[in-house]
Amino acid sequence: MQNKSTSHHPLWKITLSPATITLIPVAVGINYVAKAFAEGLKLPVWLGSLGTFLASMLGGPLAGAISGFTNNIIYSLTLSPMSGVYSITSIAIGLTVGLLFARGWFKTKKCILLAALVIAVISAVISTPLNIIFYGGQTGIVWGDTVFALLVGHHFPVWVASFLDEFMLDILDKIVVAYLAAFIYHQLPQRLISFFKKVR
């Protein structure tokens, strides 16, 4: 009987096709512009993973992970020096989106919501210790940090307050980004989508 181990699944290919390599800088550009836009308007979301979502959906987990990582490094060199610290979070987001998308988690509105919840939890778990180490547990978003200050003021452990601060922002951000990415994906020409599926 043929071995159906996931280790041989196309999702886990180490090499990237020329098409996927071309996709990555586009995704990085989308991430960069979306994050700068959100920061410029002081929105309660980051939007900086939109390109990562799209890269993962079109090119697979590895493409998304590289897109997220690259964007954090570039952003840290231009607009926000500390952004590079969170590159590990972006890698995890890219991998998670790609795996969930391959398993059909972006096909219905309910599934998209569940996918956003899973991604938000993973993002918050990874980002919380980074927030504690570099920012005393805060995120830099005013209304989230207000919750942090309130919880700390009521003698909650810093890590609990920090996680809830991060998660509240992450869940809102990932819901917005997940639905937006799914909408954009479904507006793309089928020929383009099929092209990436063939070369993956």
From TrEMBL:
Keywords: Kinase, Membrane, Transferase, Transmembrane, Transmembrane helix
Spans traversing the lipid bilayer: 12-33, 45-66, 86-106, 113-135, 141-164
GO molecular function: kinase activity
Top-rank lineage group of the source organism: Bacteria
Name used for this protein in its record: Signal transduction histidine kinase, LytS
Species of the source: Limosilactobacillus panis DSM 6035
Taxon lineage: Bacteria, Bacillati, Bacillota, Bacilli, Lactobacillales
